[in-house]
Amino acid sequence: MKKLEIQEHDGFLDLEDLPHNCIFNKVVTGCGGTTIALKNGENYVIAVPTTELIENKCYPPKDESGNSIVWKAGDRKAGLSPVRNLFGLYGTFTPTLKKRLKEYLSKEGTKKIMCTYDKIPSLVSLIVPKEYRLLVDEYHNLLKIYSYRKEAVEGVLEHFNEFKSYCFMSATPIAMDFKPDALKDVEEYIADWEHIEPLMILPYQTNKPYNLAANLIETYRRQGYIERGELKSYEAYFFINSVTDIKKILEHTHLTNDDCRIICADEAKNRETLGEYRISSSTDAPKKFNFITSKSFEGVDFYSETGICYVVSNIYNEHTLLSVDMDIPQIAGRIRNTNNPFRNLVVHIFNTRPSDYYSDYEKAKKEIEEELEYAKERVTAYNQLSKGARKQQKSDLSKSSFLKYDEKNDKFIVNDMVAKVALYNYRLMDSIYCSQKDLVVEYERVGMLHSKVEWVQLDNNFIKSASKKPTFLETFLLYADMRYCLDIEAKQSIEKEYPFIKEALYKLEVEQVKKLRSMKAVKAALEALKKENVCADSDIGQQLKSLLTVGTFMPSKELKAIAQQFGMKKSTDLKKMG
Predict the structure, then answer these.
(1) Please, are residues 12 and 21 in contact by the beta-carbon 8 Å criterion?
(2) Rounded to a whole number, what is the largest CA-CA distance in the chain?
(3) Whole-number pLDDT of residue 65
(4) How confident is the model at residue 79 (pLDDT cuts 50, 70, 90)?
(5) Looking at the predicted structure, is the pLDDT value of residue 452 above 70?
(6) CA pair distance 398, 79, nearest whole angstrom
(7) Which CA distances in Å does 569 have to 548, 550, 558, 565?
(8) Is the pLDDT of residue 453 over 50?
């Protein structure tokens, strides 16, 4: 890996163009690498992993002057951006979208096309690739998404050499163990920054990560903020790569659409899972609580002056296990406000496997490498067979996940990506998340790999205190303060957790509840009060029987006087005591 001398200004790259025909480790997230390709005088195709990333650039949440822009959902669509020279190519490649693209390509001037990885093969047939430079942005996703977007990844790896030049760029490049064979001879550069602000990582182990996240939410709601020393955070950004688990937290905390923003893929399955909760975009206005899936882990800009990023991982849901070398640094760079004192802080909440769980990464690596070698031997043997013998062997070889069939040339090719993904997933799920010690060691290892980035463990007292479940008395006092506020839903959420709390407020009042303190004592006091009222009602009934005779007429004036004698406002209230 070669160091690349760079010009920088206020933490941003100041280059005329990105380096060519290489893997470029820019080291710092959000340093303007993509912006160079978007604004310079070169024709560029910028391939990215998600639709959200394209929308974030075509429909930015801030204008050039830093003013907020709110885009309606219907305004955000594939095609030419309304605010910059950028054609966003994503979603279904319809005839209408193809026509708009051809119209854009026919016009004079520099061309900038931003597309998802899967569009590269189609795009190559519509342009002259040698007239365009290619930027494969956030290229580490080629490894991460391969298991479920195989064709998209292979489309990039098959066509990148057809362009005028190519640059695979990421602040968190793929480690050597997992690097695709298609890129093994591509030169690597690393940006040589003069100064980099350290990322601050707070690993926080708990047996119940979602309960802890819910308690943090309750503290934000109860106090309005969370404190770290003299600093206060008024907004929370939860990075949880599971829509199902996000829904569990929402239901547990009784959050509403007014309280939260959920950024995930807008598809039928997620809409069904979330039910009444709406799916939002990174370009929508921020809320106090923001829940973000992997759709927006990379390249998407968020704006918050006090927001803290919380990563929540659950060992029993593999989708939520985020890598220390790729995912966590990306998340740490999502909040763009330079005046946010928490912008480089990530609180990583996680649980681990049982202590008796044993894993051996090096052993697994050796076994996978052996399987890959066997696959290579089988490919060599197959490709030397006659046509008839190949026909007999084809079915058997097709069963191997380490091989893929090249129909055009009637031969098998070793699929190294399957092996790399298997090894990557093993390290993530069966090695790193075994204990807090293993995770912290991984943070330290990555800190050494990224020589200019410091990984700092913080005192976790502020999270420990902030995530503590509020006592009944604390919740009651908050509820009492809300007596005359208009936040009906917030009050209802407390009433749902404590169905008797409204009765306690109006029958026992604040001072008596303060003395009783506990939920058990308050419920006992309410029960005692009910018994007293039953006895009192019985005494009143006996006295009324002596004053009133059934079937005897009595003037309304006299009935009213008797009612007032027993503290009733109207004579009709006497019927209730009958």
Answers:
(1) no
(2) 116
(3) 72
(4) very high
(5) no
(6) 40
(7) 18, 22, 13, 10
(8) no
Residues 6+ apart with CB under 8 A from 307: 233, 234, 235, 236, 237, 286, 290, 335, 340, 342
Q: Tell me, what's the pLDDT at 542?
A: 62
Residue-wise pLDDT tens digits, 308-331: 999 998 888 888 887 777 787 778
Tokens in use for 412?
Answer: 């098998």
| Contact criterion met (CB below 8 Å) for 341 and 309 | no
Strand partners for 226: 233
Token code pair at residue 125: 């047939």
More confident residue, 360 or 153: 153
Q: For 19, list phi and psi in degrees, rounded to 5.
A: -65, 150
pLDDT higher at 491 or 24: 24
Report yes or no: 200 and 13 within 8 Å, Cβ to Cβ.
no
Q: Which residues pair with 48 in a beta bridge?
A: 116
Q: What is the dihedral of CA 422, 423, 428, 434, to 10 degrees?
A: 110
Least Cα distance to 167 among 214, 135, 125, 122 occurs for: 135
Q: At 293, which amino acid appears?
A: T
228-248 tens-digit pLDDT: 888 999 999 999 999 999 999
- Are the beta carbons of 449 and 325 closer than 8 angstroms? yes
Residues in the chain: 578
Q: How far apart are CA 536 and CA 525, in angstroms?
A: 16
**Residue 576 burial (CB < 10 Å; 0-12/13-18/19+)?**
exposed
